[in-house]
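Posting for a labmate who doesn't have an account.
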Amino acid sequence: MRLGEMGLDLWMCCFTSTSDTFRKQTEWKWQIFPYHKLKIATNYFHQARILDKKGSATVYYGKLKNGREIAVQSFKEDKCNILKQFIEETVILNFMPYKNLVTIYGYSTHQKEFLLVHEYLSNGTLATHIKGQPSDSRTTLTWPNRLDIAIDIASALNYLHYKGIVHRNVKSNNIFLDINFCAKLGNFHLSKKLVVEATDVTRDLIGTSGYIDPELVSKGLLSVKNDVYSFGVVLCELVSSMLAEYYVHNEEESLATFLMTKVENQALVELLDPNLGFQSDVKIDKMMTATAELAFWCLQCPQELRPNMEQVLESLNGIKQGRYELSPIKAFKIFHHAELEEATNHFDTFLGKGGFGSVYYGKLKDGREVGIKRFHEETNRTIKQFMKEIEIASHLRHQNLVLLYGCSSRHSDKHMLVYEYISNGTLSQHLHGSSGSTLSWPSRLNIAIETAKALVYLHDSGIIHRDIKGSNILLDENLTVKVADFGLSRFLPDYVTHVSTLPVGTRAYIDPDYFETGRVSDKSDVYSFGVILFELISSKPASLMQGTENVTLAQFAMHKILNKNLQGLVDQSLAICFNENVVEMITAVTELAFQCVQCPKELRPTMKQVLQTLQGISKGTWGFNQIT
C-alpha cells in the first residue's frame, strides 16, 4: 500500500531534505491501514462515532473486524504543517512504547485527509470526569482514583522528559482513562524533541489557555518545565474538581492563580472539593493538602524554582504511601513583599552582607523574630542560588541548624529567604570582636560539639556545607550553636566520594586539596572544622599576619604543634580556668584539630569520629593518647 499521489506530493514539498528518513520510519515501522477499512470501522465516519473535535482534527471511535477497538484521528486541512505534525507524532511515538502513553497503531491517507490510528480508551478523558465549575456537584472519581491518575501521568511525563521530549499540551482533555481508570497521556503531534533539561527560546507559543506556562508566553522559554507547569494545573483540577477552561471561558483569574492565592493566604480548604471526603477523613485531608502544595511548587515562576518530573513523581508516590512531607520538595510559608517590608521597617534593619545578598532583621506579626536574606540582583545566577538554597535548606531540621521559615511570594520584586533570627551574634564576633573574648573553655568545647553535630547531620543527609567558618556559626542567648548559610552547599550522592567543582568559600578555611584539585568531599568540611577548633583554642582569626606575610591559622597552629610550643597557640586568657583536667582537654582538642587539617584528606577523620572524640574529651573519658 503506497501513499496517494497528493499525500506524497505534500510530503515531498514539506520535507524535501528529510523525506527519505520519515518515509522509512513510517513505512517500515507502522502498519498502513487501508482507508476503506477505517471507513467501515467507523461506520463511514458517522457523526455518532465522533469522540472529540480539536481544531483541525476530529477523533472517531472505530472497531476493526478482528474486534480491536480503535480511535481514528482525522486531519483534513490541506496544510503542510498539519502533515508535518502528523509525521512528527508517528516518528516520536514509534520509539516510545510506554504503559502510560497512548499507543499508536498506524496511519492512513486519502486524498487530502490524513488519519492516525490510536488505541481506544473506553473511559474517555479526565476532563469528562471532572465537574468543571464550582456550582456542579457531580463527581465520578474518588480521591484514590485521582491520585493514581496523577501518578500515571507524572510517570508518563518523567519518561518523556528522560527521552528529551516536551509534550507541550498537557491538559485534562489529553489524559485518557481505560476501563480500570488507569491513565495514559496522548496527542503528541505538538511535542518537540530537546536536549534533556535544556531550554530553548521559541516564538512558537503552543499550548492551551489556562495550562500554558507564563514563562513560555512572556519569554518564549521552551523546556520540560513547561510541562511541569501544565501538570501543576492538572493537579489543581484533581484536588478542586474545577476545570481550568471554566476560568478561561468566564474570563476569571486562572485556576493556577486561584491555587497560588489560597496557598499564600493559608486558605487551601477553600480550594479542595468537599465531595472527595477530606472533611471526614484525616488521611484524605493530608493527601489532598500535600498534593495541592505540590501543585503550588509546579506552578512557580521562574521555571528554575519548579521541581523536575522525577521529583514530582517521587513526591506523589510518597503521598500515596503516607509521607506527606514533600521530599525533595518542601512547602514553606510564602511571604508577601509588603509583609516583609513591614517586618523590617522598609529594610532599614541591616545586619550584614554576603556574596549573594544582604541580611535584615525583622519581626513578623505573629511575634517571631527573623533574619531576611534579600538577594542582590535578579539575575539567572541569583535565581539559581535562591532556588538551590531553598532546595537544600528545606530538607534540614536539626537543633543546631538555622531554620528556614519560608520565602518571598513569586509576585515580589526581590527574591528573599526568611530564616529564624539568632540573637547572640556569630562565633567570630565572640572570639575576635573589639570587646575581646568572653567565652569560657566549657562554652567553647560545647560550641565545638554542637557544630560537629550539625555537620554530622548534614553529611548523613548527603550535604557538604562548603563554607564552615566562624561567621556562619551563630549563637543564641544560651550560646547554643546554629550553623547558617547554605548558599554554597552541595548534595553529595552516596555512591560517590567527591564532586568536582570550582573552589568556593573563605580562603583561610578552604581545604588545600579541594582548592588545588576542585574535588570537594565531606572531608573538606572536616578541614574547615579543624580551623574552627584552632580558633576556639587560640581566639585568633583564621587569617594572620606574621611579619610581612599573610599565613593561615592552620599553618600557624601546625608550626606550633610540630615545634612542641602549644603554649604559643593557646589563648592565655583561658588561664583563669587552667587546671590539669582543662589542660588535658585543650591538648586533646588541639591534637584532634591537627588531624582534621591533615593533607591528603584521607588522613583526616570523619565528622562522626570527630564528634565522638569531642564528646569523649568533654566527659573525661578520651585522653590525648587515645586519639588515633
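Reply:
Got it, the C-alpha cells are right above this. The radius of gyration is 31 Å.
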